[in-house]
Design goal:
The protein has about 160 residues and is of the alpha+beta class. It contains four helices and seven strands, in the order βααβββαβαββ. A seven-stranded mixed β-sheet has the order 1-2-3-4-5-7-6, with helices on both faces.
Length: about 160
């Protein structure tokens, strides 16, 4: 294994913010257009939750290369069988096949939580993520066209899904 997942702690949130802010300010892979606060991150990312989990990602050299988490897909009780999966790598660690390992390692945690459906929401511009999720058995189940705008460009939101 080239990647290990360790439980993300509240003390790790500045690292998460650094990565998230980079993607917010420089790319179309997230729909935030400004830097986010730690409080905002806490509102969408589970930290210390026994069911919905978040992880730091470390490589063999013990470098922290990113983070991932699975969270409640929607707040209504009927959606309790589904989670939303999110993965972010520091830009200098993309393209190294870490994503495949992360997917293999996180799915057992999702199954342990009793979930049977994994959703991923991906920017239509994010070819690398679309390719990763497709290679890992996810199917595109929706493409919401021109639902957002960033850097004066209209953006699609693609929904990917995998049944466990």
């Amino acid at each position: 294994m080239n990647i290990t997942l360790t439980d993300l702690q509240e003390a790790d949130l500045p690292f998460v913010k650094e990565i998230y802010d980079y993607y917010s300010l420089h790319t179309n892979v997230v729909y935030s257009v400004h830097q986010v606060s730690i409080e905002e991150i806490k509102s969408f990312m589970p930290v210390g939750d026994p069911i919905y989990r978040s992880f730091l990602l470390k490589n063999k050299e013990e470098e922290t290369v990113g983070f991932c988490y699975f969270s409640r897909f929607k707040p209504r009780e009927a959606f309790r069988i589904s989670v939303e999966l999110t993965i972010y790598l520091k830009p200098e660690f993309t393209g190294r096949r870490y994503g495949y390992e992360i997917m293999e390692q996180i799915e057992p945690f999702i199954k342990q939580g009793g979930f049977s459906n994994i959703m991923a929401l991906i920017s239509g511009d994010n070819d690398a993520s679309k390719h990763l999720f497709e290679k890992c058995g996810y199917e595109c189940c929706a493409n919401i066209k021109q639902v957002a705008e960033k850097f004066e460009k209209k953006l699609d939101l693609m929904m990917y899904q995998k049944f466990l």
